[in-house]
Amino acid sequence: MPSPQLFHKVLGAAFFLLLCRAQAKPAGTPPLPGFVHLPEVGMNEGFIPGLLPQVDNEMEDLICQLEHRISRLEGVLHLEKKITASGGKIFATNGKKANFHTTLRKCKEVGGSIATPRNLGENDAILYFVKNFNTYAYLGIKESLISSKFHFLDGTQLSYTNWYLNEPSGKGEEECVEMYTDGTWNDKKCNQNRLIVCQF
């Protein structure tokens, strides 16, 4: 189950978006304190007595409903072995396989990125899927222009590694990185089909 801090981040974002929707304002444009949006007039007017407490109660009810639904969905996803969490990140899989570039695209389409372990806990979270599906998964790590030197996709140096014995060994011919079923890493060509694991 995700940490309470992560849950509150998600809830905070949902609350912000709901508040913007309720006030018919685009996200990123918070209302001025004491002002509400009047759709029939189409402009912001001063505080209307009695309206904000009613909106607050309705929002509170809606937030409670969302918390309940999110909790149920997380439970189902955990039960189906499709979601796990570590270090403030949520990791998820659809159980399907794809090459590296398709994995990048699929993760981006759903608002995430390819799973990238930056510590042992995150490596173990990804390993959960690799073991469960008994298959390898690509990681968000690629070879740099210097042969056998790898970095995260954002260009930063690896601060955590878990290479298998004598890896990386591709010497410029294997640019991607996969995770073995024991959690160790291997450099690999990017055209193989591996388990899609995304992070959020």
Uncertain runs are 15-45
What is the count of helical runs? 4
Strand content: 15-25%
For the biggest sheet, the summary is: 4 strands, antiparallel
Using only C-alpha atoms, the radius of gyration works out to: 22 Å
How are the strands of the biggest sheet laid out side by side? Answer: 3-4-10-5
State the separation between the terminal residues, measured CA to CA: 14 Å
Q: Which H/E pattern describes the elements?
A: HEEHEEHEHEEEEE
- Structural class, by secondary structure, is alpha+beta
Q: Which descriptor suits the 3D outline?
A: elongated
Output mean pLDDT. Answer: 81
How many extended strands? 10
Q: Helix content range of the residues, please? A: 25-40%
Topology of helices and strands:
Blueprint: H1 4-22, E1 36-38, E2 43-45, H2 51-79, E3 83-86, E4 89-98, H3 100-109, E5 113-114, H4 120-133, E6 137-143, E7 150-152, E8 176-179, E9 185-188, E10 194-199
Provide an overview of this structure:
It contains four helices and ten strands, in the order αββαββαβαβββββ. The chain has helices at about 5-20, 50-80, 100-110, 120-135, and strands at about 35-40, 45, 85, 90-100, 115, 135-145, 150, 175-180, 185-190, 195-200. β8 and β9 form a beta hairpin. The two termini are about 15 Å apart. Mean pLDDT is about 80; it is low at about 15-45.
